[in-house]
User: Which sequence fits this backbone?
């Protein structure tokens, strides 16, 4: 039963690299964390994104093991490709082993059933895709698209710079500029987007050092080349169908960066989200 632990259940909507930083903070703080994801997540920094469990069933990022347990097939929740079983039993089994369960539930239909202590929108869609204050006692959202105090209880600033990780209790985070944050003097050149719809085929792999002009991947048999030298820190999953204008690769000019660990940005946002939760919980007690 969830009744005895519901006050310590945190639901994170999204399992990308930034969301993984949030998951780690709550997980280490002793909460029972559940990730809700889509059927085909399109994370770029897959080496540090727990949403990869959607495809691989289990995945490991630093000290966190994540396991895909169930999916919503549009009518009810069930184990992937298996007969009906008890969702609650599967969640409890994961939490008992200190494993973070992942549920394929893009619309958040499980939230009402589970009644978590908090819901965190870490989808980073730059807009509100449905998260609202009625979902839980405490609601927190990352980045632009949410008005703190109206849509959710708190918003976390995700823009690199002086205010990164700021807890906002009234108003919006900085609007999306469409320009990637600067790393070692590079900004726009370090992120690659698709110029057409198609299927991606890898040539290079995450962790490779690429030179300017190196072919990184193909879309519809057309090679796409690195615009600069750097570490290939992110690359969308091989064989994924991509749409035009979609972010698909990330090159870090700092070639000595550890691409296997959670980033400084994700840790900052994760810590701020945990801070916001305790701030809001303490306000409720006064």
Assistant:
């Amino acid at each position: 039963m969830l009744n005895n632990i519901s006050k310590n259940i945190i639901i994170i909507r999204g399992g990308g690299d930034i969301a993984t930083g949030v998951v780690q903070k709550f997980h280490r703080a002793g909460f029972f964390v559940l990730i809700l994801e889509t059927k085909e997540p399109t994370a770029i920094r897959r080496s540090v994104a727990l949403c990869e469990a959607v495809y691989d069933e289990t995945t490991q990022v630093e000290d966190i093991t994540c396991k895909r347990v169930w999916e919503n097939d549009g009518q009810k929740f069930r184990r992937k490709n298996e007969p009906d079983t008890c969702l609650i039993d599967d969640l409890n089994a994961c939490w008992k082993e200190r494993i973070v369960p992942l549920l394929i539930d893009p619309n958040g239909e499980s939230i009402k059933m589970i009644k978590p202590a908090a819901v965190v929108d870490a989808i980073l869609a730059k807009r509100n895709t449905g998260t609202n204050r009625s979902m839980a006692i405490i609601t927190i959202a990352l980045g632009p698209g949410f008005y703190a105090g109206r849509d959710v209880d708190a918003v976390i600033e995700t823009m690199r710079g002086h205010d990164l990780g700021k807890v906002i209790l009234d108003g919006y985070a900085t609007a999306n500029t469409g320009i990637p944050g600067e790393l070692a003097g590079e900004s726009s050149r370090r992120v690659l987007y698709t110029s057409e719809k198609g299927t991606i085929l890898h040539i290079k792999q995450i962790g490779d050092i690429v030179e300017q002009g190196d072919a990184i991947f193909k879309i519809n048999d057309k090679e796409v080349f690195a615009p600069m030298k750097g570490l290939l820190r992110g690359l969308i999953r091989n064989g994924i169908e991509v749409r035009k204008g979609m972010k698909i690769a990330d090159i870090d000019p700092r070639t000595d960066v550890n691409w296997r660990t959670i980033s400084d940005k994700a840790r900052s946002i994760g810590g701020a989200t945990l801070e916001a939760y305790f701030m809001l919980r303490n306000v409720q007690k006064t």
